[in-house]
Specification:
The complex is a heterodimer of chains A (about 425) and B (about 300). Chain A is of the alpha/beta class and about 425 residues long. Chain A has two domains: about 190 residues, Periplasmic binding protein-like II (D-Maltodextrin-Binding Protein, domain 2); about 200 residues, Periplasmic binding protein-like II (D-Maltodextrin-Binding Protein, domain 2, 3-Layer(aba) Sandwich). Chain A has 18 helices and 16 strands. Chain B contains 14 helices and no strands. The chains are: A alpha/beta (about 425), B mainly alpha (about 300).
């Protein structure tokens, strides 16, 4: 009895202290562990708290592999974050689970979002509501090894035909016909499945998904795109899936002339000292058509945030998606700003590394995954059936299309 | 069996000593149970309760996000109709059927000869035991790099040097599973060797001396004395390593992280399927059903082995 009274007194005292200490609202911000992202967020929190002394923000991080599970499990336990970062492709899962609440249109008007941000922001819109806003966006580009290109006497490719030509001229083999240095890395589990889905399929005249979100690549265009891709290994022999374990490892080691990768790889490639490298836009097709795949992590407001916590969360969200925050994010993390004004500055556009990625943002597409991991795996299997089991691209494509449609149908039933 | 004989004889001597002070003995028993109660309660709570709740969960459609609904045997129906499950089921048994005999024969042969080596005995034994002490993930990554294509893969470089064509190893639907299995066998070998050596040492040398006097050859000694007397050790290792191979995960996951269980599911064991169903698809009910199937298989295999080995 006495202990209980003491505990109650202690609890009351503590809560009083918390209130009187700063009269501050504490909100939690969740993201996954990635050193530069955490550093950048610390910096943003510091700035935000200086401007809003009545709000404290606590950053909580988890390893990437556990992040989704943690968010979902904490939601189930009723202890979710106030503001959280999520991959746009997880939105359906999170929204159905009630993890996120829609943004208040009074605070974040839709027309303002649509005019200020790049068009890919629509991927976090459901119905009339936005469920989050990105700080930074990512797009793909073609990285090239200047040393290997100079040795072969070729220029960075601008079209698909040139890409095949450059890759052919830069591929090195040993006496047994084994590739010792790739013309282009083939890593479908990396970014190549995005390249195939959103870029190659379109460049060969098709669309990956129809307006209703059903699989639409099982046609002549999809087949040509798949044959082009698998042909790089089976016919042209300018790359080998699994070479150096991963495409980015091969490029980093100086054993690949070309590789397709995203802005997020810049940090890993920066320390390279053995050779100079450059970036160009993903090659166009013969008609000059370009496409790209852009993606992003958005910041949303947790469904548990209400009252003054919600007001604080909204303020914080507005700050971390402001021009100022995007500048910090670009400097610290190296990811592109999601707002046009912050991204398309003269300094960024004249930067030889950033400009190819930035140019892509105007025509980039964003795949609306229902099960990102499952759909990616399905694409990997499609290519592996051709590479490892000798299945014809036509049959493999049809099988992949049916399996992916089943994934999409399954998600709709939930 | 040798060990049980030893402990019971020890117990007998202790009883003899304390026979006259029954109260002390009684108090010892009470104390022993007091200390044992804590781990037993803990064990029940941390092991049996979750196990039972997994059985219940397998009858629901729980997905972490929404409250669980009872769905009867729907998860099991779905599982047995899923071609991926049968593929994974086959893989799991391949790991077991290839892995257990090879690792046992290999570790017995090594233990048998190592037992006779006096020169640098300790060092050699330590070298065999070292992989068992190494983190499975680190081990798997080193082997993963061994299997790479030219120019960085050690095995392929050796093959090329000898004039053989390069092999795809992990990038092949037929070679990947054996390649991973080699790592699994290698990782567990040291432990099995140590246990076998302990078993060999426990056989009284008088039997061997008698056999020699009677003029028995090495082969006869091996089959008539060593192997029969090693049976308790062998039973233990067969059960232990079977369970190990049925639950293989670390090696597979770490050697195929880019395409877990791939290529084309050719290396995916049941445990990896459970992991993916639970923690990337969040289908907890369906994953629990898979766990129950794995549990049943483990139980059946263990009981079957104990029964077979006892009969002989």
């Amino acid at each position: 009895m006495r202990i209980r009274t003491m505990l109650a007194g202690l609890a009351a005292g503590l809560s009083l202290m918390a209130v009187t200490a700063a009269q501050a609202v504490e909100i939690q911000y969740w993201q996954y562990v990635f050193e530069t992202r955490v550093t950048a967020m610390d910096q943003l929190i510091k700035n935000f708290e200086a401007a809003n002394p009545d709000i404290t923000v606590k950053q909580v991080t988890f390893p990437y592999a556990d992040y989704q599970t943690k968010v979902i499990a904490s939601q189930a336990a009723g202890q979710g974050p106030d503001v959280l970062q999520f991959f746009y492709g997880w939105l359906d899962q999170f929204q159905k689970g009630g993890v996120l609440q829609p943004l208040d249109p009074a605070m974040f008007p839709s027309d303002k979002i649509e005019s200020d941000f790049f068009p890919i922001v629509s991927a976090v819109k459901r119905g009339d509501s936005y469920y989050g806003l990105p700080t930074a966006v990512r797009s793909l580009a073609l990285f090239y090894n200047k040393k290997l290109l100079d040795e072969a006497g070729v220029q960075p490719p601008q079209t698909l035909d040139e890409l095949v030509d450059v890759a052919t001229k830069t591929t090195k083999t040993d006496g047994g016909g084994n590739i010792t240095s790739e013309g282009i890395t083939l890593d479908f589990g990396g970014q190549d499945h995005q390249w195939w889905r959103e870029v190659l399929v379109r460049q060969f005249g098709g669309v990956p998904y129809d307006a209703d979100g059903n699989v639409a690549y099982n046609d002549e265009a999809g087949l040509k795109a798949l044959e082009f891709y698998t042909g790089l290994q089976t016919d042209k022999k300018v790359g080998l899936a699994g070479f150096m374990d991963e495409g980015q490892a091969a490029f980093k080691a100086g054993l690949a002339a070309l590789t397709i990768d995203g802005t997020f790889r810049l940090g890993a490639f920066k320390p390279i000292t053995d050779f100079e490298w450059g970036v160009v836009e993903l090659p166009a097709n013969a008609d000059g058509l370009r496409s790209n795949y852009a993606s992003y992590f958005a910041n949303g407001i947790g469904s548990g945030a209400t009252g003054e916590k919600k007001a604080a969360a909204e303020k914080f969200l507005a700050y971390i998606t402001s021009d100022e925050a995007m500048k910090v994010w670009l400097d610290v993390v190296g990811e592109l700003p999601a707002r046009r004004a912050a991204a398309l500055t003269d300094a960024n556009l004249s930067d030889p590394i950033y400009s190819p990625f930035l140019k892509a943002l105007d025509y980039a597409k964003t795949t609306l995954f229902v099960d990102e991991a499952g759909q990616r795996q399905n694409a990997i299997d499609m290519v592996n059936r051709v590479f490892l089991e000798g299945q014809s691209p036509k049959d493999s494509l049809a099988q992949a299309a049916a399996a992916e449609q089943a994934i999409i149908d399954g998600a709709r039933q939930k | 069996m040798a060990t049980t004989a030893q402990t019971s004889s020890q117990g007998a001597t202790r009883k003899g000593r304390t026979g006259f002070k029954l109260s002390l003995h009684g108090r010892k028993v009470v104390w022993a149970w007091t200390f044992l109660a804590l781990p037993i309660v803990f064990y029940c709570w941390i092991r049996f309760y979750p196990t039972l709740s997994a059985f219940w969960m397998s009858l629901t459609d729980w997905d972490l996000l929404r409250p669980a609904n009872f769905v009867g045997l729907a998860n099991y129906q779905k599982l047995f109709a899923d071609p991926l499950f049968w593929k994974v089921f086959g893989n799991t048994f391949l790991y077991l059927i290839i892995g257990t005999p090879i690792s046992l024969v290999l570790s017995f042969v090594i233990a048998y000869y190592l037992d006779r080596v006096r020169f640098m005995h300790g060092l050699i034994r330590a070298l065999y035991f070292l992989p068992f002490l190494t983190t499975a993930a680190a081990l798997a990554w080193v082997w993963r790099w061994f299997y790479q294509p030219i120019p960085i893969g050690v095995f392929n470089d050796i093959l090329a040097m000898l004039g053989f064509p390069a092999q795809p190893f992990l990038r092949s639907t037929t070679q990947a599973l054996p390649s991973i299995l080699v790592t699994g066998i290698w990782a567990g070998l040291g432990f099995q060797i140590i246990i076998f050596m302990a078993g060999l040492r426990a056989i009284p040398s008088t039997y061997y001396e008698a056999a020699r006097v009677d003029g028995l050859g090495d082969w006869a000694i091996l089959t008539k004395i060593t192997l029969p007397l090693l049976k308790p050790t062998t039973v233990f290792l067969v059960v232990f390593s079977s369970i190990g191979f049925l639950r293989i995960f670390d090696q597979v996951y770490n050697m195929t992280t880019n395409d877990p269980g791939g290529p084309l599911n050719s290396t995916k064991p049941l445990v990896l399927m459970i992991y993916q169903t639970a923690f990337s698809s969040f289908q907890m009910g369906y994953a629990a059903a898979q766990t129950v199937v794995l549990f049943t298989i483990l139980l059946a295999v263990s009981l079957l082995q104990l029964w077979v080995m006892r009969k002989r």
